[in-house]
Amino acid sequence: MKHYFLILFICFSLTGIAKEKASLLRFDFGSGKVKKGWTPITPSSIYTDEKGFGLIPSGVMEEGKDFLSSKKPFYFSVILPEGHYRVILTLGGSPEGSSTTVKAESRRLMLENVKTASGKTVQKTIVVDVRTPKINDQEQIKLKERELNYLNWDNKLTLEFNGEHPCVAAIEIQKADKLPTIFLAGNSTVTDQENEPWASWGQMFPNFLKPELVVANYAESDETLLAFKREKRLQKILSQMNPGDYLFMEFAHNDQKPGGNHLDAMTTYKDELKYYMSEVRKKGGKPVLVTSTNRRRFDENGKIINTLEEFPEAMRQLAKELNVPLIDLNAMSKAFYEALGVENSKKAFVHYTANSYPGQDKPLADDTHFNPYGAYELAQCVTLAMRIAIPDLAGYIRTDWRGFSPGKPDPVNDFRWYESPSMNLVKPDGN
User: H or E segment at 156?
Assistant: First the structure.
């Protein structure tokens, strides 16, 4: 019975809060004395639906007076209503020092490699979009079967603590629904990929932004403009959109394929994009067009072959015709791949020799879908283009971001990614 009342209290606190900055939930990690109003979290605080919050470890948890840590990634989940949340993390506290990378929900990169010295802590803030497929009492997004167990679509906020020595001292969660939002619509090159070794630029994008702007990534593998609308994904975005919010749209890979969702680049493709933009503007939102990433296909001179036909050019024309901001990721990805070169560019995609992962008896060779390095670099392309094309958003880019040039990408060997426990060798839909 006490668990029932605890969940009731959590839900009441979340819906009845009067001030956005008031703390809704406070969790104190470790064995030390807990302050009034804080909930203690120890290694035995394992998540259950009945309790409504707790740890999901993938290895042995280590406990200190004022922290919990591990040599393996671990998760913390809490049941929350749909909305945007400001999460204040106190990281560190271990006498060994710590290094913590934080991902949210379906592997969205929020903080990377936050280091603390022996016994020291640091406070970091992130903002997370928590959502469900429900639109209203009668309607919801038509999810694909593979999406049903995605962390993006459950009724919880889930945080992943990863790195060489992840260490957490405290978590505070506040409502933040009034923050401006960038919604993302697109396909497998944009979506929050649930499993290693796949990744997209959309799930890396939050890492480069200040915790004053929310990224709500509604993209999904194999989507087209027609299917995204038919499955009510656009309707869901519009139901959440407030005046001044943005919708970034990247479609083409699947729209160009023959079949019932096919669009002609210079006619019906443009018409559908115009429809999206019109609906966004009705909500007081701001549309942004994003040309699609190139596939990895080189000619004999080491130059990228355009496999997307007229679709990128159609979007460029439309942006100019309607005076809509354009992020030319197609051109930037071309420069990025060519700078890496024919062979080295494989390291930006899911190209792995056999036995790179458990149960992988055959090589993985995918020239459409990115690995974390490729996704990370393309997210920097989007960040760079946003700073130039959308001055109103430039101030939301992290001040410590050092900038980026697609023609001079970060060295592959300098990139360090801490893999999540979730892995699936099946290629995402779409090509």
Answer: strand 156-165
185 within 8 A of 238, measured Cβ to Cβ: no
CA-to-CA distance for 359 and 66, rounded, in angstroms? 39
CATH architecture of 180-414: 3-Layer(aba) Sandwich (3.40)
Residues of the chain within CATH 2.60.120 domain(s) are: 2-130
Nearest to 252, CA basis, from 301, 199, 204, 308: 308
Q: What pLDDT, on a 0 to 100 scale, did the predictor assign at position 429?
A: 80
Dihedral sign for Cα 294, 295, 299, 303, please: positive
CATH architecture designation of domain 2-130:
Sandwich (2.60)
Cβ atoms of residues 343 and 396 within 8 Å: no
Kindly state the average pLDDT of the residues 145-170. Answer: 97
Q: Encode pLDDT of 39-76 as tens digits.
A: 999 999 999 999 999 999 999 999 999 999 999 999 99
Closest CA to 199 of 428, 429, 431: 428
Give the residue-averaged pLDDT of 88-109.
Answer: 97
Q: Which residues of 264-284 are buried (b: 16+ CB within 10 A; e: fewer)?
A: ebeeebbebbeebbebbeebe
Q: Is the pTM of this model over 0.70?
A: yes
Category of 135 on φ-ψ map: left (φ > 0), alpha (ψ -120 to 50) or beta: alpha
What 3-state class would DSSP assign to 174?
strand
Instruction: Measure CA of the first residue to CA of the last residue in the chain; give whole Å.
Output: 51
Confidence of residue 229 (pLDDT cuts 50, 70, 90): very high
Kindly provide the residue ranges of all beta strands, DSSP E only, lying in 105-150, ordered along the sequence. 108-116, 121-130
Q: How far apart are CA 98 and CA 165, in angstroms?
A: 5
Phi, psi (rounded to 5 degrees) for 368 = -115, -40
Give span(s): CATH 3.40.50.1110, the chain: 180-414
CA angle 202, 208, 212 (to 5 degrees): 100
Helix, strand, or coil (residue 79)? strand
